[in-house]
Design a protein that fits this description.
two-stranded antiparallel sheet; 5 helices; globular; about 25% helix; alpha/beta; about 150 residues
């Protein structure tokens, strides 16, 4: 059984992907706009720094560390765990706001993913497009408000 540590939980993407691999968990911090912290596979932290420290401490317990959006963590993680399998998953803002820094930091990852096709052009390392999944525990298709529209549960 492959265990994945998802770090950050951009749009609950980490929670959805973690459910695909039993034994995987999500480290997250920040405001709980989408009931992220209520998910039983989420381990909440009070600050990004505390979450980063726990990630570095616990990374060796997992087969893969999947970092969402916070690319500044990559060098610290790689230096602490040179053999770790690290996935960097860009969800937009961090890459669009500072593409030069994102290109430099992407070199610390074993695999780089982007969530929208336009982000492919921002990086000069091999990168793959993986669309964000929808968390069906948070959103559900609604036929009574319009075909194809998603509404909060």
């Amino acid at each position: 059984m492959m265990r994945v540590l998802h770090v950050w939980n951009a749009g609950r993407v980490g929670s959805v992907l973690a459910r695909c691999f039993p034994g995987s968990i999500v480290y997250c911090c920040g405001p709980d706009y989408f009931r992220i912290m209520q998910d039983p596979i989420v381990r909440p932290f009070g600050s990004p720094e505390g979450m980063a420290e726990a990630t570095i401490r616990d990374a060796e317990k997992f087969d893969i560390v999947h970092v969402h959006a916070i690319d500044w963590l990559l060098p610290k993680l790689r230096k602490a765990h040179p053999r770790a399998r690290i996935v960097m998953h860009h969800h937009g803002q961090n890459l669009r706001d500072n593409p030069k820094a994102a290109r430099e930091l992407a070199k610390w990852a074993d695999l780089v993913l982007v969530s929208t096709p336009d982000l492919l052009a921002y990086l000069d390392v091999p990168v793959f497009y993986l669309p964000n999944p929808i968390d069906e525990t948070l959103f559900t298709p609604s036929t009574w408000r319009g075909r194809g529209t998603l509404w909060p549960v």
